[in-house]
Every structure is written in C-alpha cells, then in structure tokens.
Amino acid sequence: MLRWLNRLDDWLAGLALFACLAVVCFEMTGRSIFNTSHLWSEELSRYLIIVSTYFGAAAAVRTDDHIRVELLISFLSPPARRALEVLVSLLCATFTGTVGYFGYRWVKDSVELGLFSADSSLAIPIYVFQAVVPVGFAIMTLRFLAKAVHTAREPAAAAVQPETVGVQ
C-alpha cells in the first residue's frame, strides 16, 4: 500500500498529461474534420498541464531530480555535505510549506467567493484547479522533510555523493 501511495504523484502527473493530450486531440479532430471548436478545450488543457507540472515537481522531490548546483558540495567532507543536505532540505520544506499554506488560503478564498474562471465556458469552479497548488506543495513539503530525516539518519559514509560529469 505504501509503495502505491509513494508513486501516486507520478500517476496523477501522468494522468493529467494524458487527459491534456486527449482534450487537445479531441479539439484538433473537431476543428479539422467537423469544422467546430469548443471554447473550453484550450483552458482545460492549460489547467491539466499545470496539474501535471505540480505533481511532477512533487515526484521530482521524491527522486531527487530537481536541478541544483553542486560546485560547493563537491569540496565538502561527507559529514559537512550531509549537514548541508539536511539544511537545504529543511529550507526547501519551509519554502514549500509556506507556499502550500498561502495556496490553501487562496483556494479557501475562491471557495468562499464562488469564483469561476473568467471568460470561460468551463462550468467548473476555479478552486478545483487551484487546489493543485496547496496539495502539490504539501506533498513536496512532506517529501523534503522525509529527505531531511533520512539524510540525517544515514551514516556519514553513505551521504549523498555529488555526480561527476564525464569523469570515470
């Protein structure tokens, strides 16, 4: 069960991307074969790309695939490297937690005001799509905290080693 839950963000990102592809193909078929267009398709595909991006970012935290500069890390001793990794993970957790909190307040305001997307024929409240911000950032926060705990607990010899490009 935990393994499935651990990869939920991968599945949600992939599902949103596939749904976007389906919407775009539907719209292209409608335009080219039936000479008709749907106003909601462009907006929905944009929202689905955003959903895919947020869940993909959460998955990238889990797999440690975010871009980072490792110039200074390569010169540190393993204990210092581990301490820096923990500090960076905690700072990232603080940032993502803060964004998640303000994202929650943003969604809450949209719910209370009953907002829908401006200039849209999409009959879905805007908070449905806005909710990906606090959810995605909450997942990232939990993943950064888990990474900090895991890094702090691992032995110094097993600390993350920076990758060296092109050196054998």
UniProtKB/TrEMBL annotation:
Membrane topology term: Multi-pass membrane protein
Primary location recorded for the protein, binned into one broad class: membrane
Keyword vocabulary terms for this entry: Cell inner membrane, Cell membrane, Membrane, Transmembrane, Transmembrane helix, Transport
Keyword tRNA processing listed: no
Transmembrane feature ranges: 44-62, 83-104, 124-145
Compartments, record wording: Cell inner membrane
Database matches in Pfam families: DctQ
Coiled-coil stretches noted in the UniProt entry, renumbered to this chain: none
Boundaries of every Tripartite ATP-independent periplasmic transporters DctQ component domain copy: 22-153
PANTHER family for this protein: 2,3-DIKETO-L-GULONATE TRAP TRANSPORTER SMALL PERMEASE PROTEIN YIAM
Function (record text): Part of the tripartite ATP-independent periplasmic (TRAP) transport system.
Subunit structure: The complex comprises the extracytoplasmic solute receptor protein and the two transmembrane proteins.
Family: Belongs to the TRAP transporter small permease family.
Name of the protein described by the UniProt record: TRAP transporter small permease protein
